[in-house]
Amino acid sequence: MSDVPILLEMRSITKEFPGVKALSDVNLVVRAGEIHAICGENGAGKSTLMKVLSGVYPYGSYEGKIIYQGSESKFSDIRASENAGIVIIHQELALIPGMSIAENIFLGNEPRKRGAIDWKAANRMALDLMARVGLQENPDTLIKDIGVGKQQLVEIAKAFAKDVKLLILDEPTAALNEADSRHLLDLLRGFRSRGITSIMISHKLNEIEAIADQITILRDGRTVETLDVKADGVDEDRIVRGMVGRELSSRFPDHTPKIGDVFFEVRDWNVRHPISAERQVCKNESFVVRRGEIVGFAGLMGAGRTELAMSVFGRSYGVYESGTIIKDGKEIVLKSVADAIDNGLAYVSEDRKAIGLNLLDDIKSSTVAAKLSKISHHGVLDEVEEYQAAEAYRKELRTKAPTVDESVSKLSGGNQQKVVLAKWMFTDPDLLILDEPTRGIDVGAKYEIYGIIQRLADQGKGVIVISSELPELIGLCDRIYTVFEGAITGEIARADATPENLMKQMTSTKKMLTR
Amino acid sequence: MSRLKDLQKNLFGGSSSNARQFGMIFTLVAIVVLFQILTDGLTLQSNNLIALFQQNSYILILAIGMLMVIVAGHIDLSVGSIAAFAGILVAKSMAEWSLPWPAAILFGLVIGAIIGAWQGFWVAYVGVPAFIVTLAGMLLFRGGNQFIGNASTIPVPEGFRQIGAGFLPEFGPNTGYNNATLLLGLAAAVAVVWRELQARKTRREMDADPAPMWISILRMAIMVGVIAFASLRFASGRVGTSFPISGIILLVLVIAYSFYTRNTAGGRHIYAVGGNSRAAELSGVKLKRVNFFVMMNMSVLAALAGMIFVARSAASGPQDGNGWELDAIAAVFIGGAAVSGGIGTISGSIVGGLVMAVLNNGLQLMGVGTDRVQIIKGLVLLLAVAIDVYNKSQGRFSIIGSLMRPFRRDDSAPPASPPDAEREPAKVAVSG
Amino acid sequence: MRKFFGSSVVAISAAAMLALAGCGSGRDGDSDSGGEAAKGFAANSLIGVALPAKTSENWVLAGDLFTNGLKEAGFQADVQYAGASTTVADQQAQITAMTTKGAKVIVIGATDAAQLSTQVAAAHAAGAKVIAYDRLITNTPDLDYYVAFDNFKVGQLQGQALLDGMKAKKPNGPYNIELFSGSPDDNNAGVFFNGAMDVLKPEIDKGNVVVASGQKDVKQTAIQGWKAEGAQARMDQLLTSTYGNKELDGVLSPNDTLARAILTSVKGAGKPVPVVTGQDSEVESVKSIVAGEQYMTINKDTRNLVKETINMVKALQAGDKPQVNDTKSYNNGSKVVDTFLLPPVAVTKANAAEAYANDPKLAPLTK
Hints:
The complex is a heterotrimer.
Chain A: E1 6-17, E2 20-31, E3 35-39, H1 46-54, E4 63-68, E5 71-72, H2 78-83, E6 86-89, H3 101-105, E7 112-113, E8 116-117, H4 119-132, H5 148-161, E9 166-170, H6 178-193, E10 197-201, H7 205-211, E11 214-219, E12 222-228, H8 229-232, H9 236-244, E13 262-272, E14 280-290, E15 294-299, H10 305-312, E16 319-327, E17 330-332, H11 337-342, E18 345-348, H12 352-356, H13 363-368, E19 376-377, E20 380-381, H14 383-397, H15 413-426, E21 431-435, H16 443-458, E22 462-466, H17 470-476, E23 479-484, E24 487-493, H18 499-506, E25 512-514
Parallel strand pairs in A: 3-10, 3-11, 6-9, 9-10, 15-22, 15-23, 18-21, 21-22, 24-25
Antiparallel strand pairs in A: 1-2, 1-4, 4-5, 7-8, 11-12, 13-14, 13-16, 16-17, 19-20, 23-24
Chain B: H1 2-10, H2 16-38, H3 46-71, H4 79-95, H5 101-126, H6 130-149, E1 154-155, H7 158-165, H8 179-205, H9 213-235, H10 245-263, H11 265-275, H12 277-282, H13 287-313, E2 315-316, H14 324-334, H15 346-365, H16 370-393, H17 420-431
Antiparallel strand pairs in B: 1-2
Helix pairs in contact in B: 2-15, 3-10, 3-13, 3-14, 3-15, 4-5, 4-6, 4-13, 5-13, 7-13, 8-9, 10-11, 11-13, 14-15, 15-16
Chain C: H1 2-23, E1 46-51, H2 57-72, E2 76-81, H3 87-100, E3 105-108, H4 117-125, E4 129-133, E5 145-149, H5 151-169, E6 175-179, H6 187-206, E7 209-211, H7 218-221, H8 228-242, E8 250-252, H9 256-268, E9 275-276, H10 283-290, E10 296-299, H11 302-318, E11 338-342, E12 345-348, H12 352-355
Parallel strand pairs in C: 1-2, 1-3, 3-4, 4-5, 5-11, 6-7, 6-8, 8-9
Antiparallel strand pairs in C: 10-12
């Protein structure tokens, strides 16, 4: 491999923020035509490093050297790095929903003829670029009308429009379903065969193992090591060891479930889409949860798992049509979130930042936010009780924060998730619905969250886990329902669950019961 | 050395929001001192202080309501028109239907509540952005004022004028001061001391170390000193004048609403809705009810402000309320509230309003014309918020919030995540 | 510990209060000086002048004249205009600031005549004399003097000029006329109209003058907001409804802006130009008068009004009683205010050159 020319070398990069050293003495060598993965826990410095490379942090605001195509580069801003052929595609897509695919591809880079935008040429070139990324759509289609997977492809097409030499992808598959992820990875392989170099940041270790040539691992702002996937025979466990600096014997804590009786049941649940009423998002769905049981919901993105959970949680999604909820043998009617909370339900949403937390709040007010009545007397809040409650959860969940006065926006994803869990544990629920509880969370924190989930179940609570990661469901859940297009298509006991049979149920309407 | 650090950390609280408030109070003191010098001592003269409070109490009352509206993520452009509309109706009710003035005040508040319910309905239950609803309200109720008042000026009776132009009464022995004002000052001093002791107790119960005792004493001494100075000033105005009634109304409202926003579930919900409405909803907050309440509350306070102005002007006129919404909004933003909602305090807004008021008054005392006063006020507003933004971009404490979301806050607009520049180092600090 | 601490703080605060009380000066001014101490005041005292927003040339001119005139007379002048949007509140604050600064006389051109009583009372209580300039401040017993042009007289002059003008054109009646009046929210509008009717009414009763449309009531003739387009629309409508085959001899218009709008309407309809009155000596109207279209205007020379006001201030400074010429007519709702009325001057083509001889802007137009 060492005979392949070096495209990029970052030499002892150090970047400091007031009070924090985000990167210290980081080295990175990327050879032309390879796929280079960068791994590390959240906060290890991956994104900061990429921002240094792409000029977001301009030359002079960091120490060290960037040698690109044989000479030192001093990028003053993103434009400068893009002109040199370095294009970064962020985790949060930078597309404008109300504009068409073509408009987005050429945004800021519009082909002009005598000062005016030449839309004919733009559409022609867009079609060409879209073909290169395997996107079959009309270039006039609006971004908001295509799925996340296709949006990701538009982003890449946009990069090609700028004559990319080094493509940087930050968590490219985080929001994609299995099929779209596979397509994207194939695409990256195709790029490699055409000599385009890629840097990929990802938490999905199986993908990295499958696609990367080289892996550089960062930890706490330092380079730990660079591995050659083939030569070193790297597997997932090897990467994890590098990232966390220790051996994680198991990805899931040991747990012996203590399952009781059925206490929560949803029968014949029908819900319609909030805007287009002809669309049925929940079709006659029924399920049960037992005390002490962790129940998984598997399904592709858009299968209707979140919609089911939220519609049960006080009709916070869609238009309720029919169906009953039975808890502890009695039918309950939950018309609002407040009703749901009062009846012992809790819903930890899939998108922490958008709908799970008020990022302006501190830890303590976030912790008590869903049940203020518990710390107030005649409507007046007791600050001492608030503090004590928050402090107790901080200790119990081992949330890493100096005090509970800390703003939640300053916490890492894993610690934010712990605050959200604390918020719902504080409501003292009987049933917790956790929607993608470990998304965007690093390996170490995931392990802790699994432990918390198991402890909650052991307290006799029922837990529903919605996840797109099949290994997670299989490792954590006692029983798994599969959901496809708004209907429950299967119920699989832990012992029988394999990624293969889950996937089969998740993609077909045929029922399979293995109880 | 360590004492100095203690002082920095504890005197005005350690957290960033307190630091911001300290900055505001410092600015206010600086402006007062500046004008005290520039006007040869006129600024802190008893009569000027009294007039200053009387002149601005209604704007500050509006700022209280506006703060809550802005924290909830809305805006209210209609307050001036509502004040004028309520003012003319109240004046008419007394002049033409000979309603006794206490009943007329009640009547005015009811009008405010009805208007507020109207606006709250559109904002909360129909989902029309408050900007539009209140822009419509601004036209609607200004027109209503002209329609009912026929663009004429209607005088109000003596009793009613007290709420805008009245003072604490004179009683008791001749001390050379207004005794009622002195008593008020004493009560305030006792309250400050009691609060500080309570806060120490609370800190102890939270297992946290309270600030060193000498800091508490120093803090109390400063506060009591300020109160003593102010009450002596207010008590030594011309005979017949003292602490204004409108100032008392303001004080009561500030205390009540500060308590409401900080210490009750209802107040907490307003911040939750403004910080992240979807998250608040999924935490069981009744979004519509909160939005309805803040809009309605604003209109009630606007009606009250309108009545106080009418009382002070002794008549309701067609120009009442012109431009008040801008003064109130400016006070709230100078006081550190975030345009995107979720951040801001009542006390900050009051200080923000006072900064503008003292600036206005000081410049007038210097004989600076309205044209130039407006220019200066515009620059101050811009500068105050710009300093916020700059501090934030420099990674220091942030006032305009750690995330800027689109001005409109319905659920279709996906909230942008906080700028990464801020998030990344913070993560390293905590989880690294 | 805490108890001791609490009491110590109360002690501190009490001590602080006492200390401040000790060095405090006590209450300033027991000056309930409603009574005529009338001893005058220092010759270099501060005189405050609070004027409405700078929306018309007249107020800007008045402000300049006050600034210069008061300075020449040896006073310190503080001349303030209200802001464009927050007029009343600004003016209230300005008057209060003048009071605080110790102004001995405060001259007020009110933005809203009824909304200043609290500030006037405070100024009066602080020992300042308050003069209402051009607009009478109502509902306050604390107003000392009023200086203005005689607006009733303005109306009378307009009425008389209308009759004279029509007679000059056509020696014998009956004459067809139409009446216009100003904005209903302006007190002065009614005064102008009543003054004019004072002259016209006897002729109308005699049948010598006919309001052909029959619209004689002030509610029918009023033009909201003194708006030119309002006057033009009303005139258009009158011409179609009433003057299809009749001749219009004269129009009573309360000011120049409306007069020109009326003339535009008449000319647009292709009718002969009637006798139209006016007021304010606006540049365009003076040109029109010289050209022989508009018949007359009123000259209310701001210079004279300011001069009289400054004379009052001078008299007060010397401790004399200022000259007034009307102590009966102007009741502001609380008291009858001592008033100095200046006579307005009617200007037609005949006396324009003479009337504007001292006006640098208008004089050249009459040559």
